[in-house]
Amino acid sequence: MTFSDISLEEKQKALGELRNIKEQFAARGWFPGTSGNLSVRVGAFTPDRFHFAVTSSGKDKSVHTPEDFLFVDANGEACETTALKPSAETLIHAKIYRMTGCGAIFHVHTVYNNLISEYYGDEGYVPAQGIELIKGLGIWEENAAIRIPVLPNYADIPSIAKLIPGTLKPEIPGILLRNHGIYAWGANAFEAKRHLEAFEFIFEVLYRSLLLPPRPHSRV
Question: Of 98, 103, 106, 65, which Cα lies nearest the Cα of 84?
Fold first, then answer.
């Protein structure tokens, strides 16, 4: 399937979902400065041929403009004539799509995901166990223990993308960049949003738990 084979309705649906998600996340303060990026895949998928709508580079995500998004191919190249540039991290989105076949990827920078990814960065993963919102990732095991991968935040984006295949865990729909942010994905925009919200809840719980004083010994 070429980009021209994708229906106008599907393209408009993807852009509408992105505008809605962008507005919700901006209201939560998840796009400080012009940080973060969002994407939704459109059309048929094979690992070597797919297309997705992605946020434009350097845009204020607290407002809506006609220049907020553009469509790119599996190599992160624009599918239509445009002066817009895709997010600098589009290659990371493309690699995740290629490896997972997911339908949407959301990336945000928050205080909690920055602090937790730095705190556990040397271990290469963030451990979490027994937190209720692990169920939001589709993991329903009682007292489930998970490890959320943490990758180094290289300035060279292709260097990060090369690490993704060896880091992905099928059961964990997310990857952290150390002291940078989280990429969360799902089969569609709704699922990716749910996964991202679950991750952010987990990170806040982990951070706040580190601040708790030691429990006093119980008296018999």
Answer: 65
| Element holding 184 (H helix, E strand) | strand 181-186
Q: How confident is the model at residue 59 (pLDDT cuts 50, 70, 90)?
A: confident
Q: What is the pTM of this model?
A: 0.94
Please, which residues have CB within 8 angstroms of residue 126's CB and are 6 or more apart in sequence? 116, 117, 120, 147, 148, 150, 176, 203, 206
Tokens of 140: 């329903």
Q: Which of 32, 161, 147 is nearest to 93 (CA)?
A: 161
Quickly list DSSP for 109-137.
Answer: --HHHHHHHHHTGGGTEEEEES-GGGGGG
Beta-strand relationship, 174-177 and 125-129: unpaired
Question: Which tokens hold the place of 156?
Answer: 């060279």
Calculate the CA 64 to chain-centre distance: 20
85, 90, 91, 169: which is closest to 124 by C-alpha?
A: 169
The token pair at 168 is 């992905």
Model pLDDT for residues 171-216, shown as the tens digit of each residue: 999 999 999 999 999 999 999 999 999 999 999 999 999 998 888 8
